[in-house]
Amino acid sequence: MLILKLIFVLSVLIFVFFELGRIFRQMSWEKISTDLTQTDPRIIILLLIGGFIAISPMFVYDFVMVSFLPKKFSRKYILKSGLITNTFTNLLGFGGFIGATLRANFYSKGASKTDILGALSKIALFLLSGLSFCCWVILGLMASNVIEGSYSQYLIWIIGGGVYFPLVLLATFFKNHKLLNGLTLKREVTLTLGSILEWLAVSGFFLLIGRSLGVQQHLAEVFMLYIVATILGIVSMVPGGLGSFDVFMLLSLAPLGIDNSKVIIWLLFYRLFYYVIPFIVGLIFFIHGLGQKINRFLDGLPVSILRKLAHGVLTLLLYTAGILILLEAILPGFTFNNPFLLRFYPYTLFFLSQLTTILCGFMLLGLARGIESKISRAYWPTIVFLLIGMADTLRYGISDGLLGFLFVVLLLVVFSHSELYRQRFVYSTEKLVLDGGLFMLVFLLYAIIGAVNSPQYMLHHHVPEVLLFPSEKVWFSGFIGLILAAGVLLLTFSYLAAGPRQIERLLDLTRAKAIIKKYAGNETSHLVFLNDKLLYFYQSQGCDQLFFMYRRKANKIMIMGEPVGNRQFLPQAVSQLLKLADLENCQLVFYEINSELTLYLHELGFDFIKIGEEGLVDLEQFTLAGKKQRAQRAIMNRLARQGYHFEILQPPFTSEFLENLNQISDEWLNGQTEKGFSMGFFDIEYLNQAPIAVVKDQTNEVVAFASLMPVNQAILSIDLMRYRRDVADGTMDMIFIELFNYGKQQGYQYFNMGMAPLANVGKSRYSFLEEKAAHLIYEYGSHFYGFQGLRSFKDKYVTLWRPKYTAYRRRSSLLITMAQLTSVINHHEKVTAESKLRRIWLFNKI
């Protein structure tokens, strides 16, 4: 049977092929082309709408089919699936196999194979009921002489088609087959009416095409011929009756006096507006649905890649267009004498004057920077800018290529909309240097070009053709444009940067103290009392769990040390802070953090560099006894003989005492600037937060002091350690040894000696290049900072060295990041009480 079917279909196709060839050779293709080009656009719109109306009754099959199935589907889903199924079935056909396969795929969720096959069988039974009904209508028209003439040769097809509907009614009346279970009278009537509407709609649409082409007679005969041609197309089993239907209509409409060229257009419009265009729409929905499934299966990766690709291409196009516009304005001679650049100018924006060209060129670069940084506020200005460009292109008829280019860019902007999620623009140091340098270069170059175009210079010197300007007036207009462009850029970036802040600028020491008291501090938590850093609090169920200390520098948020608080919420807190910083177009930099947090951040896309080691002294093992500590015992004995003694003083301190310490601090600094951020500076409020260890001489005057820095119940540390110039050698050792004894008495397990910067960094041949460079600084930079001396001093006591790292976002410049960190450390800026209260009030208000 399969071989017989293939032979039959092949025979039909051969007949159709030769018959179409014979007909086409007799066609006047010039006349057909003329008639097509002269078709009223309103008719095209009418047929476009009519084609979709003609397929709309077919949605009935889908709504009835889902009523047979256990799962309910949304109306929107059924309409979308029905459009795909019916347009594919119309064009591809294959005896209903395509439609059955698609419906089984769309509605199989929650249903068994038996459910699907049963529903498909019931639907398939009624698909041709409407066509059979039309055959009975034709027989009635023939009996009433509405259809005139002798069409007896078609009676066999009309009667054969008409028999189908009574047979369906007879089969469903007895319902003696299990496939007909569930086929109620209501569903039968619905399917029958749906099929009748389908065939009346499509035949009516075919007649509408004829009327729009000027055929007003013999419409009943055309209706009959259409039904017969459709039956022949179904019998031929060729998808859509392609060929067999068309040959029959060409041969049958000619005796009615209809010109073959008009029939060709008629059939072309029918195929186009009923089959092809709806199929294209259905195909788009099908690809979209298939793409959504693939995207869900691959966890959204394909769409993400496409959007990022569109965003990258869009950014490149905007930058390229802006640069080309500026080249045209600044070097018109070079631009219009360069064949390579001229190829691109049909695809860039066009402006009427030098002034507007420069202004819009720089505005385009500003918007490109916003698009590149994924700022949502750049979306609508870019859309408006492109629409103005398209309007100017249409107004002045500049270039069809330009119009197409702008349309493509507009589509890329729309497609990339979801990529533009950040809420405010923040200039990074790298981009600020680049853009500022570019603007200054353009300004300088333009000024030089203006100078060489002056009459005085041209009188005595030869000016290359590429530097020539049409006139001084044009150059001067551009020069004014450059000055105004700076203002335009500032306004553009101010607009992009005006979005809301996600990370509030808070300094609430009360909340920070509560977290430290509840969850204990760490090696940097005491630095919060310097008031030179802002705080970000992470909350869970309305309760503070963690806080980060940070300072802003350009687009960097410099986080000092480990987060303080409940470490169970560390992953959630870091993730939330990352998300908020990303919305602000900022990058996080974590300074002086431990290995655990470094490895976690590495999983989140951070790079890292080792910046040194932190030394811990095990107080339980510390003792001055033994050969190793002989030198330290000698120091302590010598200082005791000289009258030096050690004391721990508790806050609050008197103003006279603090003034004395301030004098010692100034003498120790010797004119150098205090540092901040990662280390303490002399501040009365800060020093009153913890005890201070002092060394007094034989006259009971304080000659050295160290501010204690409580970490937690297990670790004690110090921050400021300063002394007079004429203090006896070994005073620092005395302070540390006495503090070790004090810490042991108070029950502390470790004493934190602080950082040894760059210690053991980059010593391996496999270390990062940046760490090897840091090792060179450690080895040979003693002139600027006593790296090795500090490590050597602490090594006398330290029993455990812990590495410390700086983590920064991957693909960001380490050199600039470290320079920004150095700038933050070297510039302490204490937050005033007024600003602190204002920020607390703002937080509470929000």
UniProtKB/TrEMBL annotation:
Residues 514-808 form the Phosphatidylglycerol lysyltransferase C-terminal domain. It is found in: Cell membrane. It is a multi-pass membrane protein. It catalyses: L-lysyl-tRNA(Lys) + a 1,2-diacyl-sn-glycero-3-phospho-(1'-sn-glycerol) = a 1,2-diacyl-sn-glycero-3-phospho-1'-(3'-O-L-lysyl)-sn-glycerol + tRNA(Lys). The chain crosses the membrane at residues 7-24, 44-69, 81-103, 123-142, 154-174, 189-210, 222-243, 263-288, 309-332, 344-366, 378-396, 402-420, 432-454, 474-498. Keywords: Antibiotic resistance, Cell membrane, Lipid metabolism, Membrane, Transferase, Transmembrane, Transmembrane helix. Catalyzes the transfer of a lysyl group from L-lysyl-tRNA(Lys) to membrane-bound phosphatidylglycerol (PG), which produces lysylphosphatidylglycerol (LPG), a major component of the bacterial membrane with a positive net charge. LPG synthesis contributes to bacterial virulence as it is involved in the resistance mechanism against cationic antimicrobial peptides (CAMP) produces by the host's immune system (defensins, cathelicidins) and by the competing microorganisms. Pfam families: LPG_synthase_C (PF09924), LPG_synthase_TM (PF03706). One of its GO terms (molecular function) is phosphatidylglycerol lysyltransferase activity. GO terms for biological process: lipid metabolic process; phospholipid homeostasis; response to antibiotic. It comes from the Bacteria. GO terms for cellular component: plasma membrane. Belongs to the LPG synthase family. The lineage of its organism: Bacteria, Bacillati, Bacillota, Bacilli, Lactobacillales. Its EC number is 2.3.2.3. This is Phosphatidylglycerol lysyltransferase.
